[in-house]
Design a protein that fits this description.
The chain is extended and about 105 Å long. Among the domains are: 42 residues, no CATH class; 206 residues, no CATH class. A hairpin with a 7-residue loop joins strand 6 and strand 7. The chain contains 18 helices and 7 strands. The chain is α+β, with helices and mostly antiparallel strands. This is Zn(2)-C6 fungal-type domain-containing protein. It holds the Pfam family Zn_clus.
Length: 541
C-alpha cells in the first residue's frame, strides 16, 4: 500500500465521526399531522383546538387497562396475585356459565373462513395490484375470542354458503352443570361406540338397561363390569417392573457355552424349531450369616449379552413354529386362522401383525418351563431357572411396548366390509383369550396378589369383551367368496371350537368369566342356528 492510500485510510474513521456529529446537531423538522389528516371531517363539531393539544392530552393520561411504573427507576407495579382459596368458587361459576360449557375446539364454518391479514384504508391498492371498488372502508383485525360488530357481519355473509363444521346448539343449555360433569367424566365405551347419550351414573343407565336385557339376575354386577369410561391400564407394564426387579445381579463370568432350548420334550419325528442361547457360567458372592463372612455360591448361568442374537423377530418365529404343532382347542384354531391370513392382503395387516406378535410373545412368557440340550447329542434336561427368568423378562418388556397400541387400535377402528369384520373379530378374540389365560396365571401365584394384577387382567378382558360385543353382537363375521376353501374350513372349525370353549366356561362358573359368558356366548347361539340348513319338508305318504 502506498503512503497516500495509508494516510487516506487512517483519516476515514475521523471523517465519519465528524459527519455523524454534524447530522445530530441539526434540528429535526417537526411533522404536521394536519397536512395529511382532515380533523374537521373526522370530529365534526367537537374538533379540538389544535392537533398538538389533543395529542398531548392523550399522551398525558395512561390507558384504563394499564398502570404506570410504581417506582422512579421504571419498574412496573406487581399484578394482582391469584388466591387458591377462590379456585373452587371459580370452578362452580364456570359450570353455571354457559360460555364455559362449549367444547374447547372452536366452532368454525366449513370452507376455512379466515381473518383478513391486511388493513385496507381509503381504497388503498391490495398487494396483488387490484384496488377496491366499494369506496373507503376499514377492516379491523380483532381477537377471535372477543366478537365485534364486524365479526357478526362476517358470520352473516358466510352463514348461507358455509354451514358449521361441528356443534348443533344455538341456545343456552338447560343443564350446564350436567354437561360439564359429563365432559369431565367422559362417556363409557359402549355408549360412545353406539352413539347414544350417556349419563354420570356408575354404571350408566344405558349399560344398566342392556345388562337387564341380557340377564335378569345379577344384572347390576354385569352392568358395572360392562361400563368402562376409560381404557384400563395395561397389565404388562406392572409385570415388566416386577420381573426386572427379580432378575439376579450379574456375577463374575467363568466360561461360556450355548444351550439349545425347546418348549417341551418332543418326539424325534416332529422336529420343532429350537432356540440357541449363548450363556455364561458365573459365580456370585454371598454373605454367610452363620460364619459372618462372604463366600462364593455355586456357579449359575447368565445370558451372554455380547454374543446373543435374541430379538423380537427371533422369539416370534420360535413361538410361531411351536404353536403350529399344538392342538389346544379354540386357541390353536385362532392361531392357525391368523397364520392362514396373508398380511399383505389385509386392510388391518398392521393390527393383525401386532396381535400375532403379542400372542407369540405371550406364549413364551406364559410357559411354565423349557427344556434344553447342552450338547447336540445329549439328553434333554430342564432349562436353568436363571435363563427362564431372562426369557420371561425379555418377552414382558416386548409385550409392554405392543399391548397399549393394540388396545387403542381395537377401540378406534370401525370395520365396515365383511373382510374387515373377519380380521377384526380374529384380533379381538385373540386378545380376549390372552387376558382370560392371564387371569388364571396371576390368580394362582402369590407374588402377583399384592399388585392387584388379577383385577387389572379382569378389567382388560371385560373391556375387550365389550368391544367385541359392540362390533359383533348383532352381526357375526363371515368369510367372503374371495377367500379359498382352506380359510373357510378353518373359520368354521374355529366357530365350532368356540362353542365348546364357552360351554366349558359355563360349567366352571367362575366369577371372572361372567362377562364372557353373558356377552359373547349369547351370540354363539344365534351363530349355531345360522349355520344349520333350512328345515326340510316332510313328504306325505
Amino acid at each position: 500500500m502506498t503512503p497516500q492510500l495509508s494516510q487516506l485510510a487512517s483519516q476515514v474513521p475521523g471523517f465519519i465521526n465528524e459527519h455523524s456529529k454534524r447530522r445530530r446537531g441539526r434540528d429535526t423538522p417537526t411533522l404536521d399531522i394536519s397536512q395529511y389528516f382532515d380533523f374537521s371531517a373526522f370530529y365534526g363539531e367537537d374538533e379540538p383546538s389544535s392537533p398538538g393539544s389533543r395529542s398531548r392530552s392523550v399522551a398525558s393520561s395512561d390507558p384504563g387497562l394499564t398502570s404506570g411504573p410504581s417506582e422512579d427507576d421504571g419498574a412496573p407495579s406487581p399484578g394482582p396475585s391469584f388466591d387458591p382459596y377462590h379456585k373452587e368458587a371459580i370452578k362452580q361459576i364456570k359450570q353455571q356459565d354457559d360460555r364455559f360449557t362449549v367444547p374447547e375446539r372452536e366452532i368454525r364454518p366449513k370452507g376455512g373462513v379466515t381473518y383478513p391479514s391486511n388493513l385496507l384504508l381509503d381504497s388503498a391498492p391490495s398487494p396483488t395490484g387490484s384496488s377496491s371498488s366499494s369506496g373507503s372502508h376499514v377492516v379491523i383485525l380483532s381477537n377471535p375470542g372477543s366478537p365485534t360488530i364486524l365479526d357478526a357481519a362476517v358470520e352473516d355473509t358466510h352463514e348461507d354458503t358455509h354451514p358449521l363444521n361441528r356443534g348443533r346448539r344455538t341456545k343456552p343449555l338447560n343443564n350446564p352443570e350436567k354437561v360439564a360433569t359429563m365432559r369431565k367424566l367422559g362417556a363409557c365405551y359402549r355408549c360412545k361406540a353406539r352413539k347414544v347419550q350417556c349419563d354420570e351414573g356408575a354404571p350408566c343407565s344405558g349399560c344398566t338397561k342392556d345388562a337387564a336385557k341380557i340377564q335378569s339376575l345379577n344384572c347390576s354386577d354385569l352392568a358395572e363390569q360392562m361400563c368402562c369410561r376409560q381404557q384400563p391400564t395395561p397389565a404388562f407394564s406392572e409385570i415388566d417392573r416386577i420381573t426386572c426387579a427379580e432378575m439376579p445381579p450379574r456375577g463374575k463370568a467363568l466360561t461360556s457355552s450355548c444351550l439349545t432350548v425347546f418348549f417341551n420334550p418332543y418326539k424325534p419325528s416332529s422336529f420343532p424349531r429350537s432356540l440357541t442361547i449363548p450363556v455364561l457360567h458365573v459365580e456370585h458372592g454371598i454373605y454367610d450369616e452363620s460364619s459372618r463372612s462372604y463366600g462364593v455360591r455355586g456357579t449359575q448361568y447368565q445370558l451372554d449379552t455380547e454374543t446373543s442374537s435374541l430379538n423380537e423377530g427371533t422369539l416370534v418365529q420360535w413361538a410361531s413354529s411351536q404353536m403350529m404343532l399344538e392342538d389346544n382347542g379354540f386357541q390353536s384354531a385362532l392361531d392357525n386362522l391368523v397364520i392362514s391370513c396373508r398380511p399383505d392382503t389385509l386392510p388391518h395387516s398392521d393390527l393383525l401383525h401386532k396381535v400375532y406378535k403379542l400372542r407369540c410373545l405371550y406364549k413364551i412368557w406364559s410357559q411354565n418351563g423349557f427344556v434344553c440340550q447342552r450338547q447336540p447329542q445329549s439328553d434333554l434336561e430342564q432349562l436353568p431357572q436363571e435363563i427362564c427368568r431372562v426369557l420371561k423378562a425379555m418377552t414382558a418388556k416386548l409385550i409392554k411396548g405392543i399391548e397399549n397400541d393394540v388396545l387403542s387400535e381395537l377401540a378406534g377402528k370401525r370395520p365396515k366390509t365383511a373382510t374387515d369384520r373377519l380380521h377384526m373379530w380374529i384380533c379381538m378374540m385373540q386378545v380376549v383369550l390372552l387376558y382370560h389365560d392371564l387371569i388364571g396365571i396371576v390368580s394362582s401365584e402369590e407374588r402377583w396378589i399384592h399388585e392387584n394384577l388379577q383385577q387389572k387382567a379382569e378389567a382388560l378382558m371385560n373391556y375387550t369383551a365389550v368391544m367385541c360385543d359392540v362390533q359383533f353382537g348383532k352381526k357375526k363375521p363371515t368369510v367372503g367368496s374371495e377367500y379359498g376353501a382352506h380359510l373357510s374350513d378353518r373359520f368354521a372349525n374355529a366357530e365350532c371350537l368356540q362353542l365348546q370353549f364357552f360351554a366349558e366356561l359355563r360349567q366352571r362358573n367362575r366369577r371372572s368369566d361372567h362377562v364372557l359368558t353373558s356377552l359373547l356366548a349369547k351370540n354363539q347361539k344365534c351363530s349355531s342356528r345360522s349355520r344349520m340348513g333350512p328345515p326340510q319338508k316332510r313328504l306325505r305318504k
